[in-house]
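Students often ask why inverse folding is considered easier than folding. One informal answer: many sequences map to the same fold, so there is more than one right answer. In these notes we will look at a single instance of the problem. The structure comes first.
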């Protein structure tokens, strides 16, 4: 049985489509996290809305450490993230799914590690491949099977937000090799690596970036695009959960802190409980 965490972003906050789910509150050293627990295809599923189910938390204020720590405490070993993004690449028009393979981090004010030196805890994690190659293989296989327009790789530029990018920034990010821009994959991805959880991200292109779009960007445009793609996103999740086929790629995600003795939960506190 797999224990899968699904982290939904803008437009992926409604968990009702996943059937009957039990609310969980997880106390962590970094604050409280809330998620929904269910089962599908014999696997445990934990759904977490990173902006809150009412979309009340902006990207730079998300408690990323509490969210990832909570999933680790619940025994989650793999996370599938969904993010709404703007395209920096005319070859990736709105409606395209992108299985991101690299990222560029331009965040500024976020705590990006579990290891800030408290109690003598310091760790330096390898992050050359920020996304799990095995999970990316599974996700790409699902997108091919569903016949959805997608790119099997791409570089995600993480901006601080909550504002959208300037036209000059979009040109710079594209020149640096960026393919899509969003506001939430960091520090989420690196925290998952520190917690030794496999992590993959499926970005959904909702609009072209500033300077490439024919009109000014708006959050309404993003949410409307995600609503149009809701059935496809749910189909991806269902296919991913049901895919237990063999994988040719391997990963070291679950041994990321091996030289430090692993990510030790006993060094922290907090309990999971049903509401």
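Output (designed amino acids):
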């Amino acid at each position: 049985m797999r224990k899968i965490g699904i982290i939904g972003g803008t437009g992926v906050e409604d968990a009702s489509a996943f059937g009957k789910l039990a609310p969980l509150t997880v106390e962590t050293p970094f604050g409280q996290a809330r998620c929904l627990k269910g089962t599908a295809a014999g696997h445990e599923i934990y759904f977490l809305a990173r902006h809150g189910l009412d979309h009340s938390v902006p990207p730079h204020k998300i408690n990323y450490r509490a969210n990832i720590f909570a999933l680790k405490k619940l025994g989650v070993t793999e996370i599938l993230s969904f993010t709404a993004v703007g395209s920096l690449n005319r070859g990736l028009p709105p409606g395209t799914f992108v299985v991101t393979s690299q990222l560029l981090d331009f965040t500024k004010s976020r705590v990006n590690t579990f290891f800030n030196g408290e109690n003598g805890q310091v760790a330096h994690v390898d992050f050359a491949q920020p996304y799990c190659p095995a999970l990316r293989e599974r996700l790409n296989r699902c997108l091919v099977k569903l016949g959805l327009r997608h790119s099997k790789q791409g570089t995600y530029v993480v901006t601080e937000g909550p504002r959208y990018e300037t036209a000059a920034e979009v040109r710079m990010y594209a020149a640096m090799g960026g393919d899509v821009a969003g506001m939430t994959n960091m520090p989420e991805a690196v925290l998952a690596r520190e917690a030794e959880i496999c992590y993959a991200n499926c970005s959904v292109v909702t609009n072209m970036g500033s300077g490439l779009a024919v009109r000014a960007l708006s959050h309404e445009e993003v949410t409307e695009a995600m609503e149009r793609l809701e059935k496809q996103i749910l189909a991806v999740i269902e296919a991913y959960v049901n895919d237990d086929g063999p994988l040719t790629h391997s990963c070291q995600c679950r041994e990321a802190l091996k030289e430090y003795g692993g990510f030790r939960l006993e060094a922290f506190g907090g309990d999971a409980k049903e509401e």
